[in-house]
Amino acid sequence: MFFARLRKDIAAAQKNDPAARNKFEIWLTYSGVHALSWHRWANFLYRIHLKLLARITSQFAKFLTGIEIHPAAKIAAGVFIDHGAGVVIGETAEVEEDVVIYQGVTLGGTGKEKGKRHPTIRRGATISCGAKVLGGFTVGEGARIGAGAVVLKEVPPYATVVGVPGRVVRINGEKKQDLIPEKDDPILREVCALRERVYALEERLAADEHAAAQGAAPERGAREEQGEQGGRDEDL
Questions:
Q1: Residues of the chain with pLDDT under 70
Q2: pLDDT value at residue 202
Q3: How far lies 133's CA from each of 42, 94, 151, 167, 176, in Å?
Q4: Residue 169, SS3?
Q5: pTM attached to this predicted model
Q6: The predicted structure's pLDDT at residue 4
Q7: Please, where are the H alpha helices in 48-174?
Q8: Distance, CA of 20 to CA of 25 (rounded, Å)
Q9: Would you say 118 and 132 are in contact if contact means Cβ atoms under 8 Å apart?
Q10: Beta strands 167-171 and 159-162: pairing type?
Q11: Is the peptide bond before 186 cis (omega within 30 degrees of 0)?
């Protein structure tokens, strides 16, 4: 079973990395393949309730490869972690086969909640370098997450997601104009609310200035009348 999975991991690396020359080189030098092999052992220890030893194993693998995978994470055979430096995969994450993960990717959670708090990555998805996929949702089959994207909600199958926060810009290779920007963009909502607030304050300020100017005019007129009346009284 271990060697069958290892063969699938090596085949995935050979399929997805044009720099790969042969299987022997991949087995000896690819940190992503090494990290997955160590994870399979750590996961086995975790499942038989040797959890401390499993965590020690995962931390040792992190020291060797620069890739941190929680022992409880479920990762299928045939996943390819390219380069791998800085990759973090959380406890309840699930990664199906034919997924490609580049360096700096985080499959993490958004808080201290219990239960399913890390993403599920469906078959054939690609998570580009520096992307952060945070939460207990699903990234659909064949989806592509752009470099540096921060994904906080469900991604449909064969969608392309970019930006911070991540938004769908293509599905099946076709542009989705109605999704650019998304209607539920929290930053856009906040900017619009601030703009409306500024407009309301400007209107109130203009009204106050107009009322103050109108009040000052009668007061000046009354003072002038009082001055004229006082002058007439002195003449008398």
A1: 173-174, 176-185, 216-236
A2: 87
A3: 23, 12, 5, 12, 21
A4: strand
A5: 0.69
A6: 84
A7: 51-65
A8: 8
A9: no
A10: antiparallel
A11: no
> Would you state the structure tokens that stand for residue 110, as one six-digit string?
């958004």
Q: Round to whole Å and give the CA distance between 37 and 181.
A: 41
Q: Using CA atoms, how far apart are residues 54 and 77, in angstroms rounded to an integer?
A: 19
Q: CA–CA separation, 98 vs 141, rounded Å?
A: 10
DSSP strands (E only) in 65-224? 68-69, 74-75, 80-81, 88-89, 94-95, 100-101, 106-108, 120-121, 126-127, 132-134, 138-139, 144-145, 150-151, 159-162, 167-171, 174-175
**Rounded mean pLDDT of the chain?**
84
Distances (CA, A) of 82 to 71, 115, 120, 165, 204: 20, 29, 19, 24, 59
**Residue 139, pLDDT score:** 93
Q: How far is CA 152 from CA 60, 87, 91, 124, 132, in A?
A: 30, 18, 17, 20, 8
Long-range contacts (CB closer than 8 Å, 24 or more residues apart) made by 156-164: 157/122
pLDDT digits (tens, 9 = 90+) for 196-213: 888 888 888 888 888 888
Q: How is residue 153 written in tokens?
A: 């909600």
What fold, for 2-181? UDP N-Acetylglucosamine Acyltransferase; domain 1 (2.160.10)
How far is residue 145's CA from residue 75's CA, in Å, rounded to a whole number?
A: 18
Per-residue pLDDT, 87: 92
pLDDT of 177 reads 52
Entry field: residues in the chain: 236
The residue among 125, 126, 88, 128 whose CA lies nearest residue 109 is 88
Q: Tokens 């086969």 — which residue?
A: 97
- The pLDDT assigned to 180 comes to 47
